[in-house]
């Protein structure tokens, strides 16, 4: 059964969906390394420019929250073609943008495309791949969305250094076109569509809560962590999330089936998944900016510092998925999260004394740990829910993944900005180094938290299996 052949058409469909998802995720962090350049070009602060990433990830998250409904309502192939065309249009808007607002609009168009492309990739895998080989293919999917954020700074830095930030969008277009053509002719439709009433109010509440919490962290960078602005936005966002949950359980309209969260082992899977992705996107944002602001490195060097770790992570993820298929989820996930903890503790210890070689080495450890844990945490989590709820579980994981990236970027930027604005006679390079050190300490705490959650989860799964 484990050697069951996969039809070539299915493989091509996964490649097409994977390429589009990869391009969408690649551009998430490609722009991070351009922030110092964009700040100078448009005369804007870091807290404003970072909305290119935070706003993008917010809209991706919100779009993903609708993906379970959209996949039940429309044919997967039609959704894929819409996403591909939207990404192409967004690329043109970004590439030709005359100002920051134009660039932001283009990024938001691309966000909608990415928000549908990533869940489609996993939906095809879950629907078409036998359970015995699910780990390998989910690992490939995890590699696509997990490694691309790390490759983004290298890609963005290379283009910005050799050409300009606009080439980030032009050079990726041929890949998107190939992806759309592949998917348009190969993506299968296994499940019947149905006409359900869409929960617009639920979507609005979710969108408001996402924005309020992200904006709260942005305000913390401008006004401080004890400011009324930060706590006001944060508390308001939490209240709106509560309203969303209450509404969802009492509404007959369809958005996301929250009954998936009644499974403790699912919750204990999605929480560390959220934290791992927050660390992944957060550090992919932090390290290139740290290298430029503290060392004075150019965008090419700053982006390339995390290239080796990204490549190792990509190689490892399908292998770790095969390990899950053959020996269960416990071994690769525990090993991976242990390496992540080690890497983050090292970053925290050497936060004020980092060098480019140390960044490369520490991030290599992180990339190896990420490769063993990230995709497998999702695979293990989806297995904890009933088969009929897999679309909703897939949507929940992908939404949390992208929102984690949004929050991670906002928090890293807020801590960095607040340090740069502190009343100190230190240079901006020294202040940025101090802010970066604080970021690393926070990431180390989050890594330990994820480690504890994973241990508790496997204890519960072991008891349930007895």
UniProtKB/TrEMBL annotation:
Gene3D superfamilies: MFS general substrate transporter like domains, Multidrug resistance protein D. Coiled coil: none annotated. This is Major facilitator superfamily transporter. Belongs to the major facilitator superfamily. EmrB family. Residues 13-462 form the Major facilitator superfamily (MFS) profile domain. The keyword Transcription regulation does not apply. It is found in: Cell membrane. Keywords: Cell membrane, Membrane, Transmembrane, Transmembrane helix, Transport. GO terms for cellular component: plasma membrane. The chain crosses the membrane at residues 51-70, 79-98, 104-124, 131-148, 168-185, 197-217, 223-246, 266-287, 293-312, 333-354, 360-382, 403-420, 440-458. The keyword Transport applies. It comes from Secundilactobacillus silagei JCM 19001. NCBIfam families: efflux_EmrB (TIGR00711). It is a multi-pass membrane protein. GO terms for molecular function: transmembrane transporter activity. It comes from the Bacteria.
């Amino acid at each position: 059964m484990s050697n069951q052949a996969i039809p070539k058409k299915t493989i091509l469909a996964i490649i097409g969906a994977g390429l589009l998802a990869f391009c969408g995720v690649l551009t998430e962090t490609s722009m991070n390394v351009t922030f110092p350049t964009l700040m100078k070009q448009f005369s804007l602060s870091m807290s404003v420019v970072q909305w290119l990433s935070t706003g993008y990830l917010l809209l991706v998250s919100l779009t993903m929250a609708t993906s379970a409904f959209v996949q039940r309502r429309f044919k997967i192939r039609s959704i894929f073609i819409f996403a591909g065309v939207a990404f192409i249009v967004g690329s043109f808007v970004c590439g030709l943008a005359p100002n920051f607002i134009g660039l932001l609009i283009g990024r938001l168009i691309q966000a909608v495309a990415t928000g549908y492309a990533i869940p489609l990739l996993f939906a095809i895998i879950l629907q078409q791949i036998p359970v015995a080989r699910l780990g390998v293919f989910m690992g490939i999917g995890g590699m696509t969305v997990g490694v691309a954020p790390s490759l983004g700074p290298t890609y963005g830095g290379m283009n910005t250094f050799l050409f300009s930030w606009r080439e980030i969008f032009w050079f990726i277009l041929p890949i998107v076109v190939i992806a759309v053509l592949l998917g348009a002719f190969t993506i299968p439709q296994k499940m019947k569509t149905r006409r359900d009433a869409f929960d617009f109010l639920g979507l609005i509440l979710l969108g408001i809560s996402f924005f309020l919490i992200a904006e709260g962290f942005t305000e913390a960078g401008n006004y401080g962590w004890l400011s009324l602005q930060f706590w006001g936005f944060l508390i308001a966002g939490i209240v709106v999330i509560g309203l969303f949950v209450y509404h969802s359980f009492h509404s007959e309209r369809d958005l996301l089936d929250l009954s998936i969260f009644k499974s403790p082992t699912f919750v204990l899977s999605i929480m560390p998944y959220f934290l791992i992705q927050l660390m992944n996107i957060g550090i992919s944002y932090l390290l290139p900016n740290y290298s430029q602001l503290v060392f004075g490195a150019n965008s090419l060097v700053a982006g390339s510092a995390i290239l080796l770790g990204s490549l190792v992570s990509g190689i490892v993820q399908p292998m770790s998925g095969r390990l899950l298929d053959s020996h269960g989820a416990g071994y690769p996930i525990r090993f991976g999260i242990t390496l992540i903890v080690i890497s983050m503790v090292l970053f925290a210890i050497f936060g004020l004394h980092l060098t480019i070689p140390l960044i490369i080495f520490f991030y290599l450890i992180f990339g190896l740990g990420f490769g063993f844990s990230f995709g497998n945490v999702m695979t293990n989590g989806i297995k904890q829910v009933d088969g009929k709820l897999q679309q909703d579980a897939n949507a929940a994981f992908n939404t949390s993944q992208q929102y984690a990236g949004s929050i991670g970027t906002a928090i890293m930027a807020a801590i960095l900005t607040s340090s740069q604005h502190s009343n100190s006679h230190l240079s901006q390079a020294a202040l940025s180094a101090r802010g970066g050190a604080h970021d690393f300490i926070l990431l180390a705490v989050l890594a330990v938290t994820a480690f504890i959650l994973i241990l508790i989860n496997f204890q519960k799964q072991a008891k349930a299996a007895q």
